[in-house]
Amino acid sequence: MNIATTPSNNAVIEIIIFGGAGDLSTRKLLPALYMAHLHDELSDGTRIIGVGRQDWTRQDYLDLVNSHSPSFVEPSEFDDGAWQKFLNRLDYVKLNLSLADDYHKLKAASSASALRVFYLATAPSLFTVVCANLSSVGLIDDRSRVVLEKPLGTDLASARAINADVARHFKEEQVYRIDHYLGKETVQNLVALRFGNAIFETLWRAPYIRSVQITVAETVGVGSRAGFYDGAGAMRDMVQNHLLQLLCIVAMEPPISLDADDMRDEKLKVLRSLRKMSLADIKRDTVRGQYVEGTSDGQTVKAYRQEDGVPAASSSETFVALRAQINNARWANVPFFLRTGKRMQKRQSEIIIEFAEQPFSIFGNGPGSEPSRLIISLQPQESIQLSMMVKEPGSGMTLHPVKLGLDLQSSSDKRRADAYERLLLDVIKGRLTQFMRRDQLEAAWMWVEPIIDGWQSLDDKPRNYPAGSWGPAASSALIARDNLAWFEEA
Ligand code: BG6
After folding, report:
1. Which of 118, 242, 394, 457 is buried most deeply by CB count within 10 Å?
2. What CATH class does 182-417+429-489 carry?
3. 179 CA distance to ligand 1 middle (Å)
4. Rounded to whole angstroms, what are the CA distances from 451 to 231, 319, 443?
5. To which CATH superfamily is domain 12-149 assigned?
6. Which of 72, 180, 246 maximizes ligand 1 atoms within 8 Å of its Cβ, making it the mutation to test the pocket?
7. Omega into 207 within 30° of 0, i.e. cis?
8. Range with the lowest mean pLDDT among 20-24, 184-188, 260-264, 364-368?
9. Could you tell me where in the chain the CATH 3.30.360.10 domains are found?
């Protein structure tokens, strides 16, 4: 079977999840695979093997899955009979990931004819040893695929080292670096919107676009993930991957086809065109924040430094806002404002394309005059709206903004799969388009790492912002310098 061929319905497929008992597996991967099972998207021969270090029987593992995963399935999609059949697909293997000999147990549990998908939902420090040990017992063949969860390294050097180690055992076309934002329906719709509608493509450039805002705001705090998050911060956790991937889709040139490498070549060019920031740029164009006590969803919530597992003097950022620029002909002088944070006022992920104002307006620039904006909302609702000026009814010629809206949820009867489900099915089908290639990942680090280093050398401490707000005041000031405002504050 060719690597990019959709397996037949009776193909034997094994999805082997390292970290099978972990949070990602029980909260996201298994519910996503259940949905694929429920909707007949998995071949009859698909099995799922959870790999963990706990000394468990298969039944212990099923008990864990049973107690954690069903609550992450939409209640209307939960069918007890289907769930029990789904559980029949599951198996468990206890492994000490560092012990090569242990991998013989996995080999014994795996069918020789299976197409194997290895999903590495473990700390990235284990990626190297897992790949080497899989290889040493002969579990990797030309059809195998490996899925690497983020974070892929903590800086350029560690990302390169992981990529080089994985490449010793898997060819690049067998490697699926997952960024679940690329599996979101609206993100994929952005490609359709841009390249399937001539009216946008002609205007999609300077000087017709005045600015772009990309916001991923969450109301949740760090939760139980302090161990990982405090060492990473929002820049590594969100900007280096999700926000830059969104920026790539907004800014890329039309690819020559939808093939994986044609798409990824264009995204890579965007990352390489991002203007590198000097220390002066970092000081002026970036804002780090950290939440202090405040109110979120009507509840008083703790400061970041008081969360379980967070050092009392932590200087990790839970918020970043920055002004980026792309050095190419299409985007010269168009500022891209990126912003992400935990414990923000609303859960809201959106891309705002603000079009330039008219060079001359016969209506004047009085109150009510606003530039047109394309508002692409990814979360919590998926929608695309174009805000335009129309005349207010009555005598006179007063204008006011009205939104022309596309409600994506009700635009089709077809089921909208969750990002992980869609991406897992892409892996099984050998579709690489929505996964990051090695050079893309490294290019993203090349832009992000100097900013993180710059913060260190400038001794830039995060500014406080109350939980439940839109971040530090400096974030509003950052965008105000361009005579603009964040969309919620406009
Ligand atoms: C993950 C980050 O990649 O994305 C988390 O590690 C973040 O910190 C999550 O909460 C957000 O994903 P979503 O799909 O809920 O917006």
Report:
1. 118
2. alpha beta
3. 10
4. 16, 14, 14
5. NAD(P)-binding Rossmann-like Domain (3.40.50.720)
6. 180
7. yes
8. 364-368
9. 182-417+429-489
